[in-house]
Amino acid sequence: MAAGACCKCPISLAVLKRSLSAAPRGPTAACPRSLLLSGRKRDGERGLREAARSASVPRAAAIGRHAALCCLSCQESMSQSLRTCYVYLNQTSRSFAAVIQALDGELRHAVCIFYLVLRALDTVEDDMSIPLHRKVPMLNDFHSYLYQDAWSFSESQEKDRQVLEDFPTISLEFRNLAEEYREVISDICHRMGVGMAQFLEKKVGSMKEWDEYCHYVAGLVGIGLSRLFSASQLEEPQVGWDADLANSMGLFLQKTNIIRDYLEDTKEGRAFWPQEAWSQFAGRLEDLAQPDKLESALACLNLLVTDALRHVPDVIAYLARLRNQSVFNFCAIPQVMAIATLSSCYNNPRVFQGVVKIRKGQAVTLMMEATNMPAVQNLICQYSQEILRKVSPADPSRDETLRILALIREKCQTSGLPVRSPHLSPVYLSAAMLLAAVSWQYLSAAAAQSQAAADMQGQ
């Protein structure tokens, strides 16, 4: 099937419901962990209802009938292998799935396959049951498997192992993409695999190495996505050319995840906080979780949050270049979620005691508001001011934190930035989200029936 055969649905009902209701999967070393939404199903539905209060029932019903028909038509136009890829996307992402499936035209399929290829690569990297003498060559050569019809790996012990066991389905749809998309995905997969292999046998030591590690596992994702945006002609060539801004987009998300997930990672024996930072405050990274180390732990935390914040001016510059609404939403929503998360983490002892999350209602509100550049600038400025109010005069990183926050504030207030006019109103999005919940049961049942029928035919 040719890429782009799918219709241009304005929004994907099923994946929106999934994104709003499902908790994110556990963090992994090599994939930027999406910051969109989290929480139990009940909480997600409550937030969805709150976000949809302004939408009238008649208007919602009309939009729902149109969107449901559009999504079903879209699914029916796909090959079985492409439908399977979207099943894997929803199973392994749980959050990026929503914004990926809201992308326009053939870009949707390209980004879906890009995500699954990198998820498969990440699953190899993260699988501790694969010995290094096998894992290193697999990571270095993984890009070549995209052109091997039958390559698969059935020995993984990871929960996302289906993307390796059924890699022939993913690689088939990769080869069905247009050449310009294949070149980007193969190149990024190659560079990421080589970088992952380098960090298998060394820890993140210096702050420079932290940047390098985050570049390999997330910055390259931002660079690859930017090149895909330009290849689709939905965005200008400059978006794909400017690797520095795209790299900052990835680094900001990855550093936020690493900071937030300190306790979970240390409990599982993973160390992503750079030694150059934590060694100033403790003899061992895990010591920061000790109650008597709280003051030192907060100083280290604030140092790393400050380092992550230095990418925000680049994030603002990147987003200001985007012209396509679906691409803007795809990029802006995770970024505003990230700065909201950093605001919650800054100087917060709970980072060392559990998981710091933004409220469900707050997440839905951010998702609804982050649809145009002025709104995004306002949100970034708002959370920067929240961090500013928490800065302690005794904090060792205080001067640098204040300097970067001032730079962010100046960037947010800069006049002359191109202003985009969103074509999806908040009322429309509210109605669509409301109907995502109403339509979920039907669409899930239809997809399950289709998969069951396909399984029976294959037996």
Give the terminus-to-terminus CA distance.
23 Å
Alpha plus pi helix count:
22
List the uncertain runs: 1-73, 415-447
* Largest β sheet strand count, sense and barrel closure: none
Helix content percent band: 55-70%
Order of helices and strands: HHHHHHHHHHHHHHHHHHHHHH
Rounded Rg? 22 Å
What does this structure look like?
The chain has 22 helices and no strands. It is globular and about 60 Å long. The two termini are 23 Å apart. It is mainly α and 459 residues long. It has helices at residues 13-21, 41-51, 57-76, 80-92, 96-101, 105-126, 132-145, 162-165, 167-175, 179-199, 207-231, 237-241, 243-260, 262-267, 275-278, 294-309, 312-321, 325-345, 360-369, 373-390, 398-413, 426-458. Residues 1-73 and 415-447 have low confidence and may be disordered. The longest helix is centred in the C-terminal third of the chain and has 33 residues, at 426-458.
Based on the model shown, name its key terms:
459 residues, mainly alpha, 22 helices, 68% helix, disordered N terminus
Brief synopsis:
This protein is mainly α and 459 residues long. The protein has 22 helices and no strands. Helix 17 packs parallel to helix 21 (398-413).
How is the topology of this model organized?
Layout: H1 13-21, H2 41-51, H3 57-76, H4 80-92, H5 96-101, H6 105-126, H7 132-145, H8 162-165, H9 167-175, H10 179-199, H11 207-231, H12 237-241, H13 243-260, H14 262-267, H15 275-278, H16 294-309, H17 312-321, H18 325-345, H19 360-369, H20 373-390, H21 398-413, H22 426-458
Helix pairs in contact: 1-22, 2-19, 2-22, 3-22, 4-6, 4-9, 6-9, 6-10, 7-10, 10-11, 11-13, 13-16, 13-17, 13-18, 16-21, 17-20, 17-21, 18-20, 20-21
